[in-house]
Amino acid sequence: MSEDLLPIGRFARLCRLSVKQLRHYDDLGLLSPAWTDPSSGYRYYRSAQARDALMIGLLRSMDVPLPVVARVLSGDERNELKAARDRIEADIARRRRGLRLLDRVLAEGLPEHEVSVVREPARRVVAAREAATPATIPDATAACVSRLLPRMAPGVALIGLFPLDMEEEFDVRVTVEAADGDELLPGGPFASAVHVGPYEEIPLTVHGVLAWFGDHGHTPAGPVREVYLNDPATTPPEHLMTQVQIRVEDAP
Fold first, then answer.
1. Which domains can be identified in the chain, with CATH numbers?
2. pTM reported for the whole predicted model
């Protein structure tokens, strides 16, 4: 056995990791010991491995997923770290939106919404689609809108479509009505309420509409529709108007 090998306990202290963590990273193939005693199974590490071990500990302290850590160690450091940073930034933005919603609820209580049932016609539309997670809905929606801008016409509203049941990953769609559209947006009866205020607060109105379903014993059907009634480029956030619609599945 080489004299520059450190037993796992000493190496763990050097790298500010636990022995249990080092064993786990070895099992994953993320950081293997330089030598394992075949008779005792005891692990030994070289001092030069400390840099990788410290990088693993640092990235894990920032909740960077282990598969990303592995790719960083394999050499694609800049791209992977930038992607990890973007994910953390998106999570911070999502949490800030959540804090603003919570502040509003604390100040005003749960908002009451006037909900009415409207019958929407079927519409032929052009749609843009983007993969999203709950944290990236705003960015995915914005990407869809940018692709539809060339199809916009005066007086025609964009309609965002979002799943009723949020999963870890899903598609966000934004549509615009067009005579030559290649998709048909179904019509039918919808519970509808108008949201006034920033887009990030629309979930409050969505919950208000869903509460109406519970109060009246109806069954909601997705996707949730958001009809954007004015232009965010020229309208202050507090004056933005969005019609929230959820189809009433069991309406007569």
1. 1-109 (1.10.1660.10), 116-248 (3.20.80.10)
2. 0.65
